[in-house]
Amino acid sequence: MSKSVMDQAVMKTYGRFPVTLEKGSGSYVWDTDGKTYLDFTSGIAVCNLGHVPQGVKKEVEQQLEELWHCSNLYHIPVQEQAASLLAEASGLDQVFFCNSGAEANEAAWKLARKYRHDRSQSEKHTIVTFSQSFHGRTGGAMALTGQPKIQDGFAPLMPGVVHAPFNDRSALEELDADTVNAVFVEPVQGEGGVHPADQEWMTWLAAYCRENDILLIVDEIQTGAGRTGTFFASEAYGIKPDMITCAKGIGSGFPAGALIADKTCAESFSPGTHGSTFGGNPLASAAVKATVEIIQETAFLQEVKAKGAVFKKSLEKLVPESADVRGMGLLLGIDFHKPAAPYIQALRENGVLVLPAGPEVMRILPPLTVTEMEWSTFIQTLAHVLEEDQ
Ligand SMILES: *Cc1c(COP(=O)(O)O)cnc(C)c1O
User: Fold this and answer.
1) pTM tops 0.85, yes or no
2) Catalyzes what (predicted)?
3) Domains of the chain by range and CATH?
4) How far is the CA of 249 from the centre of ligand 1 (A)?
């Protein structure tokens, strides 16, 4: 079968870049023509340890020899180990494993509902999320997402969700807090344009939730797994969520998602209330365990934080005055205030992969293992691209 005929067999849910990648190692990927790219997308914040990280590969290979899958009807020791590591990294108590970010948010939403049901608090039914947020593409997660472009064409959506402006108190203060069940918030809106939450607002939001008996659910699907310089960004903000959702980076590319919850919430998931055939299966759990073990090391995270600060400064020095640099740790963005696509394309032609985050923002997500040499290659290439643009 010809290549173009096979192409036709895949649904066109993605506008794909004209590149076919076939190999990766560390911060680099290679296409089918043998061209090398510096990959500053990390497969959208997934390959946080770089491509084919050896420590994770070893543990997954060992698991491949032993048991691939057995279902959650049996005890899975490696799942328990992965859960303990995530609980410890988050300061929360219990973990539900699933296979993606959207599923982790669906699980959080279900747990919030069940938590109120168990307390006969049927009046607390509203879920608050924020404008420009992104929580995933499934029915519930899409309804949580505060972006019309994600929801267009899929009405009627799951009801009960209110979108409030991000980094803004007023809409929340006007809501009747007695009707609010939970708030979903991203510490840094990644898909929505690399917008970090203001520290002051986040502190206020956490206090507002606590004072009004509202569950604080932090979507760390993009910010987690060390991306922002602490294992979870909530830690840097000094807030204590009731639940954290994560996915993307926790399996180094092996599909895995997780909902981590405080004990009092987690208790509402009794046997039979939620489940996933694949969630936390031995292979995924081996990948998560190995990944979290590496990332949660203090020295590793300190280096991410240090690199993030230095790299952000070098971007600020380089970009034109009309552009803004935003971000936290190694989740960085340049808002050009004009279409970013030409810059992203020019970088790709010059052997560097980066992502958009909305029409005017370039999102830069190097592996957390990126070296200063690789970063300076990126800066030189970006400088060249910006010069050509003059
Ligand atoms: C990517 C992402 C999701 C969705 O994750 P999937 O694995 O694609 O379902 C949800 N929330 C945030 C913040 C994300 O970045």
Assistant:
1) yes
2) N(2)-acetyl-L-ornithine + 2-oxoglutarate = N-acetyl-L-glutamate 5-semialdehyde + L-glutamate
3) 3-53+298-389 (3.90.1150.10), 54-295 (3.40.640.10)
4) 11
